[in-house]
Amino acid sequence: MTQNIQVAVDAVVFGYSKEEGVSILLIKRKYDPYQGRWAIPGGFVLNNESLEDAVERELQEETGVRINYLEQLYTFGKPDRDPRTRILSVAYFGLVKSSQFEKLKASTDAADAAWFNFKELPQLAFDHKEILKVAIERLRGKIIYQPIGFELLEKKFPFSDLEQLYATLLDRPIDRRNFKKKVMSLGILDELDEKAKSTGAGRPGNLFQFNKKTYNRLLKEGMHFEI
Amino acid sequence: MTQNIQVAVDAVVFGYSKEEGVSILLIKRKYDPYQGRWAIPGGFVLNNESLEDAVERELQEETGVRINYLEQLYTFGKPDRDPRTRILSVAYFGLVKSSQFEKLKASTDAADAAWFNFKELPQLAFDHKEILKVAIERLRGKIIYQPIGFELLEKKFPFSDLEQLYATLLDRPIDRRNFKKKVMSLGILDELDEKAKSTGAGRPGNLFQFNKKTYNRLLKEGMHFEI
DNA sequence: ATATTTTGCGTCATTTCCACGCAATAAAAG
DNA sequence: CTTTTATTGCGTGGAAATGACGCAAAATAT
């Protein structure tokens, strides 16, 4: 057997803030090929390292960001997707909380790291455009039947943040009254007694918190979620 | 870089017949490790071969089966999942039509190949039990919002076959009257003028056929399917 | 002929969905 | 302090989907 395929991981990391919307974390490539181009953070898997460990290590090295939620996205393996040699990339899908959203640290492999709005992406290295397309589809598809939206918000958040997140991702206006009825009826959101600090005019509402325990219990009981 | 990871593909292939239900295609391993154990068909990816090509080639070599539908399932990459050396496996998910269900040809890498009911699986080599678990979850999850059930049936089929397939996969009885109303209302099934040949007692019904063109058109128009 | 099996068509009560109205609360503007 | 504006919180009613079930028609088996 003279197989010569290198194994890498790449991570599509999503972040969210009310001001900048849904964003993706990219790094500027320091070396050839595609020097100077923006790319998804990632790198080669070490011999005794799991794929997930490789993702977290590369993200730490290249961006300093710690992710809150991680799942495998898709594996890209076309023979010629890298001009140097054959590289198979296991792409992952990550989410960070808004608070993490600003923290960035450029280092070893990347001349720079930055967030880009997911609707205004720059030209990308390799087949990374395709990878992002798959990731965005996954996020959009997943948000309606799994409560991953909460992973993008702070632990406590005003209800309007959740509403705006969904409106952005689904790319359509949402009727707040119906949306709230539906989400609250799932029984996985706790309403807190704290009020959000006001951000301009308008009446501040209570803060809400995702109840993971209840969610897992209901899931085990076979409950079916859909927003 | 002294990375030493081999890349393989594995294929979880599902077949269906009214008599034997939902089955999975397995091969008996001819060589160590796990000689004599049942395993998912698969093998190493060649240097200039796409992952999908590798799946089809291995399936052809080991079982002679040609698949009708193929999609990537998940990539398994734990460092110690193979006792010899580190092997990363990109698992695929395949479906064959009932007619293909019987055709089997043992050859090079496999001492034998056979179908096993998905509820009565033998002990398996490597981490293949886990792979099958993921595959079965995928099939169950997918069947309700994508018309992949048709890929398991013949081109023309009596409606009761579809009903039984869903009852088996969802593991619960189905009300035929409501089920038919729902499926027909999607508008992706053509009712033919041919009658099914009778299989014992009872009134034979018309044959039906999945209309892929209509399905794709409706999908493009943003229609949402769910059974 | 009669019983049995399977199909085909329909009914009806309940639940969910969705468009929308409007009062209450708090900050900003005058 | 009063008015304006923005946002929240609660509700209502019609339309549509869901799900339980009844029953006749068609074909085979006895």
What does this entry show, briefly?
2 copies of one chain form a homodimer. Chain A has 227 residues and is α+β, with helices and mostly antiparallel strands. The first copy, chain A, is built from 5 helices and 10 strands, in the order ββββαβββαβααββα.
Q: For the residues shown, what is the average pLDDT of chain A?
A: 92
Largest sheet of chain A: 7 strands, mixed
CATH architecture of the largest domain in chain A: Alpha-Beta Complex
Proportion of beta-strand residues of chain A:
25-35%
Largest interface: A-B, 24 and 24 residues
What is the H level of CATH, i.e. the homologous superfamily of the largest domain in chain A?
Nucleoside Triphosphate Pyrophosphohydrolase
CATH topology of the largest domain in chain A: Nucleoside Triphosphate Pyrophosphohydrolase
Give, in order, the helices and strands of chain A.
Answer: EEEEHEEEHEHHEEH
Structural class assignment of chain A: alpha+beta
Class of the largest domain in chain A, according to the CATH hierarchy? Alpha Beta
C-alpha-based Rg of chain A, rounded: 19 Å
